[in-house]
Write a structure and sequence with these properties.
The chain has seven helices and five strands, in the order ααααβααββββα. It is α+β, with helices and mostly antiparallel strands. The two termini are 34 Å apart. The site of FE2/S2 (inorganic) cluster has 11 residues, from helix 5.
């Protein structure tokens, strides 16, 4: 597996900081996912090998934590906040509109690979709910009424 040299450096610095190799497993999963975009079977095996663990130890973590992905994300990674203030402002309906606009069920990647649509928890910008992230960019006040226009702009590269 090809990891960037900076990722390898971070891993080499991080591992000795933990009292046991197993404790470093979750942070390593995050670092490898940041590098690769997701955790393939090969990546999980690599992490297990690096920490003297069995691949099943890593697979258990990856399947437990929803923020760890086993498949590549779409070109646009859309995350809709669903914590209470956003939910009260219509986040679930916003997400429904995005599902329709991109023909993609939440928790999945569209067949054309354009979007991955997921729920996330609070982004600490609750005063401007509903909040939607696209990659690392935050968009606020994406109401059910404005969600379609938001989707169109995203499709047209106008965001
Ligand atoms: S609840 Fe959505 S940003 Fe805080």
């Amino acid at each position: 597996m090809d990891l960037q040299s900076e990722t390898i450096e971070k891993i080499d610095k991080l591992v000795p900081r933990y009292p046991t190799m197993k404790s470093a497993a979750l942070p390593l999963c995050h670092l490898v996912q940041e590098d690769q975009g997701y955790l393939s079977k090969e990546a999980m095996e690599w992490i297990a090998d690096r920490l003297d663990l069995q691949p099943i130890n890593i697979m258990e973590l990856v399947t437990f934590y929803p923020m760890l992905r086993t498949e590549p994300t779409g070109r646009h990674h859309i995350r809709v906040c669903r914590t209470l203030p956003c939910a009260l402002a219509g986040a679930y309906q916003t997400c429904k509109k995005l599902e329709e606009a991109f023909n993609c069920k939440v928790g999945h990647t569209s067949a054309d690979g354009e979007v991955t649509l997921e729920y996330v928890e609070c982004h600490a910008d609750c005063g401007k709910a509903p909040v939607v992230m696209v990659g690392e960019d935050e968009y606020t006040n994406i109401t059910p009424e404005s969600a379609e226009e938001f989707a169109t702009k995203l499709k047209n590269g106008a965001l």
